[in-house]
């Protein structure tokens, strides 16, 4: 036990967030609002037989994070096949740069962004030649 099995992204505008994550990462969503008792959309992030977890978008219950505020929570990092094209989608769909692309030498390219709801997330492209 102790393995991460689910995540929740707190959002102000559910439709805007579904569009952002759906178009950038190809996630699909299932309405679990009746079960949760609030606006709550399950996020299917990929093939159930591949490594990874699913999560949800849930209606934010308080104020949005303020720009420049210190991280308060977990930062989720999403694996991608093409860093640069994913970054372009993020920026074109209203996300903003939080920490530019950098090399994890011999392992991957990594960077962080702010979604349309003010949440920080990372993207990670494996690349043994990164330097």
UniProtKB/TrEMBL annotation:
Keyword list, A-Z: Lyase
VOC domain segment(s): 3-126
Gene3D superfamilies from the UniProt entry: 2,3-Dihydroxybiphenyl 1,2-Dioxygenase, domain 1
Keyword GTP-binding: no
Pfam families hit by this protein: Ble-like_N (PF22677)
Listed PANTHER family: GLYOXALASE-RELATED, VOC DOMAIN-CONTAINING PROTEIN
Protein name, entry field: Enzyme related to lactoylglutathione lyase
Species this chain originates from: Paenibacillus forsythiae
Organism taxonomic ancestry: Bacteria, Bacillati, Bacillota, Bacilli, Bacillales
């Amino acid at each position: 036990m102790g393995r991460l099995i689910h995540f929740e992204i707190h959002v102000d505008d559910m439709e805007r967030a579904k569009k952002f994550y759906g178009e950038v990462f190809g996630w699909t969503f299932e309405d679990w609002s009746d079960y949760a008792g609030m606006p709550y959309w399950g996020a299917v992030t990929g093939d159930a037989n591949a490594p990874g977890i699913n999560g949800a978008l849930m209606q934010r219950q308080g104020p949005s994070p303020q720009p420049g505020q210190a991280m308060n929570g977990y930062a989720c990092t999403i694996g991608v096949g093409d860093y640069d094209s994913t970054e372009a989608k993020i920026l074109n769909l209203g996300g903003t740069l939080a920490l530019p692309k950098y090399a994890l030498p011999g392992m991957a390219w990594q960077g962080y962004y702010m979604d349309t709801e003010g949440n920080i997330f990372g993207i990670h492209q494996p690349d043994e030649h990164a330097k």
